[in-house]
Amino acid sequence: EKAVVDAKSAEAVADKDLYSKKTTLVSAEQKADKADKTLTEAEKKLSNASKKYNDGKKKTQQAAKEAKKNAEEKAKKDKQKADKAAKEQQKKDEKAKKKLEKKMKQEKKAADKK
C-alpha cells in the first residue's frame, strides 16, 4: 500500500515536472514567435527606409541631371546671344570705319584742292 502511494506520489511529481516543462516550452515558443514577429517588422521598416533612401537618391540625381542640362542650355543660349551681339557690333564698327575712311578721303581731297 505504501508502494502504491509512493508510486502515485512519484507519478504526481513527474506529471507536475512534465507540466512545468511543457509550460516553459510553450512560453519559449511564444517568445520565439514574438521575436520573429519583431524581426519581420524590423526587416519591413528597413526595407521601406532603404526604398525611400533609393527613391530620394534617384530624385536627387534626376534633379542634378536636370539642373545641369538647364545650365548647359542657358549657357549655350547666352553664348549665342553674345556671339550675335559681337557680330552686330563688328558690323557697326566696320560701317563706322568705312564712313570715317570716306570722310578722311573727302577731307584729303579738299585739302589737296587748296
What does this protein look like?
With 114 residues, this protein is mainly α. The protein contains 1 helix and no strands. It starts with a helix and ends with a helix.
Rounded mean pLDDT score:
93
Number of strands: 0
Quaternary class: single chain
> Distance between the terminal alpha carbons, to the nearest Å?
166 Å
Strand fraction:
under 5%
- What sort of overall outline do the alpha carbons produce when their principal axes are compared? rod-shaped
| Rg over C-alpha atoms, rounded to the nearest angstrom | 48 Å
SSE order in H/E notation? H
* Fraction of helical residues: over 70%
User: Main β-sheet, in a few words?
Assistant: none
Assign the structural class, choosing from mainly alpha, mainly beta, alpha/beta, alpha+beta, or little secondary structure.
mainly alpha
| Low-pLDDT ranges | none
Number of helices: 1
Question: Which helices and strands, and how do they pair?
Answer:
Layout: H1 2-113
Characteristic terms for this protein:
mainly alpha, single chain, rod-shaped, 1 helix
Short description:
With 114 residues, this protein is mostly helical. It has one helix and no strands.
